[in-house]
Amino acid sequence: MDVRRWGPDNQTLPNMQCLLIGLRPMPAEREAVELRTKMWQQVTDIDGLPVQWVSFSTAQDEDRSPTLLLSLLTEATADNVIKVATELIAGEYSCELWGSAPAILPLKPCEGYEHLLIRSKSDLAPFEDWAYSTIKQWGLFVQNNLLTADEVEQLRHYVLQEIDNAESLLKLHRPRIKIGKDLMAFKEIASRGNERFDLLLEPSSLGCQFVYNFIIKRISHVLERIIGLVDKEVDCDVSVVYSKPGAPNQGWHADGDHQKGSNDAGWDEDGWKTRLSDPYALCLFIPLIDLDDNTGYTQFWPASHRNKGLMGFGPLAEIVDATWNGKCEAGQAIWYDYRLMHRGIRNSSCTLRPVLQVLVKHKWYIERRNYGDESIMSLETS
């Protein structure tokens, strides 16, 4: 994008917006290329306000009709954009507004995400270099076979013991809490209800020792490339995020905010290369069972880590089919930038869904959002 069209500081224009328009019926591939080219070449400004076309994708509308999606940046009103686009296509297609946001809306590439987030065997670049560039661009990637089947079984055994111990302590020391129904936030465990839990593992626990002795050692060179040296620049928190049968869909969220004083990608479509601050924290999700539609999984919005203005727009990612479903096998790892938007999908199975979470963060960052200050075993106050 030629940022000069908006002056020397195009990042702070108060009326700038990203608009997403949909064209139906969905044209054939060749016609779609011609239509995009026509739109992008002929609609360069509206009422003297520049228009910058950004990307395109496809999705199904509420009637499940295939739709061509085009995104653009402008200070022109949405009504004027729709009017000009409708006049240009001269009745061949219908044109409607699908969404608008105060940041560039990431769309799914027409070829999908799989080949982007999972490293090809033909990729000759060192894994740590591929991982660095992928998480910078998309905010996540998948690492296959991080743990063997035997290691998964051993780690799952440790984790299930920790879950049993924590819930036993809750029943003993906090009998008034309805586990899985009530909100709670202790030093050791937190839950927002709805059968979802986040249990912090103590450094001395067998599960945490396993993570340091096996997992951290295996990935230390990748961590160094992406975020820093373990124990010198970054440290780790280890927890298990588990969902019980009946847990519903979670709301869209990011685990961490864009930090004060840091840069997001701004209005430049290549801003993730040139402006976006490096991650201050990242997570590894390692499922301890195979994840599918019944057990549920974590759904991500790739590239949503780029702009702080996307917070609250997760439901739009669903509508425009910009999401990626983390249906992984036990022992695989999903790495993601702490700023990336995601949500847990319902557990409609009869099985507990335990996912090990390793939070790797710069030492100056302290996680305060998920846990409380009081221990389960502290004297309960009325």
Structure in words:
This protein has helices spanning 29-42, 78-89, 114-117, 127-138, 149-173, 206-226, 271-274, 314-319, and strands spanning 17-24, 45-46, 49-60, 66-74, 94-101, 140-143, 183-185, 189-192, 196-200, 234-243, 253-254, 281-287, 298-300, 324-326, 333-337, 341-344, 353-362. The longest helix has 25 residues, at 149-173. With 382 residues, it is of the alpha+beta class. The protein is elongated. Strand 3 and strand 4 (66-74) form a beta hairpin. The relative contact order is 0.16.
Write the layout of secondary structure elements.
Layout: E1 17-24, H1 29-42, E2 45-46, E3 49-60, E4 66-74, H2 78-89, E5 94-101, H3 114-117, H4 127-138, E6 140-143, H5 149-173, E7 183-185, E8 189-192, E9 196-200, H6 206-226, E10 234-243, E11 253-254, H7 271-274, E12 281-287, E13 298-300, H8 314-319, E14 324-326, E15 333-337, E16 341-344, E17 353-362
Helix pairs in contact: 4-6
Protein name: Phytanoyl-CoA dioxygenase
InterPro entries: Fungal_Metabolite_Diox (IPR051961)
Organism: Cyclotella cryptica
